[in-house]
Each structure stands twice: as C-alpha cells, then as structure tokens.
Amino acid sequence: MKRNIIRVALIIVLIALGVGLYVLGRNHKIFIDNKDIVLANVQYRSENTFSVFIDGNEAVEVGKGKRKVVYSPGPWHTIIAIEKLPDGTTREIIRKFSLASRDTAIINLPVLASGNDGWLSIEGE
Amino acid sequence: MKEQSLTRAKNPLVRFAISNAVPILFVVLLIFAIPLSGFSSDYLINEIITRLGRNSFLVISLLIPVMAGMGLNFGIVLGAMAGQMGLIFMLDWEVVGIPGVLLAMLIGTPIAILLGLLAGTILNRAKGREMVTSIILGFFINGVYQLTILYGMGSLIPITSNKLLLPRGYGVRNALDLLTIRKVMDNMWVMKIGNISIPLGLFAIIAALCVFVVWFTRTKLGQDMRAVGQDMQVAATAGINVDRTRTLSIIISTVLACFGQIIFLQNIGTINTYNSHDQVGTFAIAALLIGGASVAKATIPNVFIGIILFHLTFIVAPRAGKELLGQAQIGEFFRVFVSYGIIAISLALYAWRRRVEKETERRRAKAAIKAAMEDKVGG
After folding, report:
1. Best residue in B98, B103, B111 to probe A by mutation, most A CBs within 10 Å?
2. Is domain B6-378 annotated with CATH 1.10.3470?
3. Model pTM?
4. Over the stretch A31-50, which tens digit does the pLDDT of each residue have?
5. DSSP state of B296
6. Domains in chain A, ordered, with CATH?
C-alpha cells in the first residue's frame, strides 16, 4: 500500500515537472508591427524606426510600415523598444507582458510608443 | 581473481602489456597518425573535448550491465530510440532550450524503462548469450520504432507540426532540425583557455553520473549485481533474485542510454530520424573496448581513455590516410574497420583468455587430484 502511494506520488510529481518544463520552455511567436493602426477610434501613425529587444535577445530593426517576427520561450517576457526620433535622439520604452503556453503575441510599436493600452494583442493557437 | 590468472607473466611490463594490449595498440597507432594528419594541437584538443561531452554518457551507460555479468549491452540502441521519440515530441510541442532537453528526457524515460524491461526479460531467457541476443533485439525494436514513427506518428499518435510530418500527413520526416536545443547543454557554462573551450556544465553532469555509478556499486543493489556478475548460482544461493537484478541493470542502462542519446543529438544539432540510433551501440562499445575494458570488466577510466583514443583515431585517420595514400576515403574505411574490428578482436581475446583460464583450472585440478592420490598411496 505504502509503496503504491509512493509510486503514484512519483508519477504525479513527474507529470507536474513535465507540465512545468512545457510552460517554461514553450516557444512563442511574437510579431512586432510598426504599422498604422486604429484602436478605439484613435489613429496611431507609424513614423519612426524602432530597435526592439525581446528578453535580451539580438536587436530587431523594425522600419516604418514593417512587421518582424521573433521567437522567445517561457511565459514571462520583456520588450525594450528604442525609438529613433527625427532629431537624431532616441527614446526607450520598456514593458513586461506574459503569455499562456499556446499564445502568439502581436505588439504594435506606435501604440506602445504612445504610452496607451492596446499595444499587445494575444491570439491563441 | 580471474584477471590475475589471465596475466600470469612474471615480468610486470609484459603483464601490463598483455592486460592493456588494445589501448597500447591504439596509442602506438596514434603516435604515427597524429603527426601525419598535420592537425594543430588546439584543434585536436577542442575536438576531443567536444566528443568527450557528446559520447561519455552513452559509453558510461554500458558499465552497469557489464558489472551484472551481462556483457556489453548492444541493447543501448533501445534507449537511444526512446530518447529520439522524446525529442520528436519535444519538437512537436515547440519546447526549446534546457527545458526542452529535460522534457525530452522526461518523455523518453518511461519508454526506455518499458524497453529495458522487455530487453531484461528476454535476456534472462538467453543467459550466456546476452550480447548476440541484445544485437538481434536491437534490430527487432528498430523495426517497431520505424513502424511507429513512419506510420503511427501523425495518424495514431498526434503530431501537429507540419515541419515534422511527411507531406502525406503522417510519418516523421527523415531529418529533423534541432536548432532550438543545439548545444544548449554544451553552452550552459563554458570556460575558455586560449583557443580551447571547455563545457564545464556538461562535464559537471558527466562527473555527477560517474559519482552515481561509483555510489551505485556500493549500494545493496550494486553489490547484488556484482555477485550476480561473478556467479549467478552462488548469488541465487545467497538469496539474490538473479533475474530481477539482471533486469534492473538493463533498465538502468537503457534509461542512461536514452539520456545519452539526447545529449549526443543536442550537440550534433540534427536527428536522422530513422538511423541516428543505428551505430550508437557499436561505437560506444568500440570506444569502451579500446579503453581497455573487456566483456567481464569495465571501469570509468576505461570510458574516458576509450573515448579519447577512439575519437582521436576517428579525427586523424581520414587526414592521415590522405597524406599517406593520397585518398581521404582510405581513412574513412579505416574508421569503420576500426569500430567493428576492435569489437571482434576484443571478443576473440576474451574467448581466448577464458579458454586459457579454463585450461589452467583443469590442469590445477588434475595436479591436485594426482597429489591427493599419491598421498593416499604413500599413506
């Protein structure tokens, strides 16, 4: 009896470990849009180029009207977007977001730069 | 006791040479081949370090069945297949990095346990012929594996990723990219000394496995395995469940081989779905034998000496063949010849030693009987 309980407990622990590893290691597709968008009757215009770092990975350059895709594992993510302003200066925006295991994220940079909500939309698979 | 009687020569140098004939032969071969190949020492050291990390786990997985008297476990291909199935699921579920490798191991473990249990049960019915039985068992399970992967996956077993499936909608493609986990274990913790990179993280894992093997030999189960390895009848008389002990040794070996294959493939960065596991047993066993192990005795130093000598031969042979004979292909043939040839030589040497031992024992017994009869007549 005791031996069976230990065995069942071990199986439960291993399944839980498997689920944990799946959640921690699951790769997410993250689209980064630098496109014009209308949200809640407000128009956000794509005007500048952005350098984007997702979770400290290599920089992705997203030009006006462009879309790029990056892959990043795990449920918790950080985006650092550096906007190149016309006067030659830059502006850094940092945001955190989380994704469920089968989610795909779409980040709109003009909305992110405006500081308003709605910069992140999530699609389940 | 057996090893002592094998090397009865009085001169310690001759005794050493007889006991270590295979590694000495390879050292001599390499002394000639390395300068001929023209490779730099940095290149050779880097290659050997990479190959030590890549292969150690697989070769260490052979130690426990040798301890249990089951010879060289050609059945580690079963573990390799389990590991590959784990990797296919990991790829389908898009789990990457270290969690991906661990998940593949977690998925592969129950499959390896089941295959190990099957192998152990069959090998218990073929006592004394374990090695040839495990080779044939490997071929049989390979058929089941191919059937499962080629027809079961995508139809009976859900695989959703189109990148993995054949265009017809079921069956896994021939070659799968492991870019998402490539060298993640090698790059966990790396130390650089000049041009040489040492994957300390991976070596720490291999060191932990070595500690586990040493610790295991001192446990009750480990001691039981030694007893079974020395004499099954004596072990059974002492109350050891011989069949269970032998089965456990094969299960442990198969599970370790499953992990070993995953470590091997994450280093390579690609799976040949239908034949990555084919040569695993042969190469691991050849490496262990070149390290000075025999069918009856294998130790951790044999593992590392064997991998270094075997893979150095692998690296330098094609270039040395090209420099010497103008054809790199000669070196390639030599590699295959070495792998299979060394297994054949080691097995023949083992059989010869066993025959010599039995002859010696028979002669001793005869002499003892003769002395006893003379005593009786004299008395």
Report:
1. B103
2. yes
3. 0.89
4. 999 999 998 889 999 999 99
5. S
6. 28-124 (2.60.40)
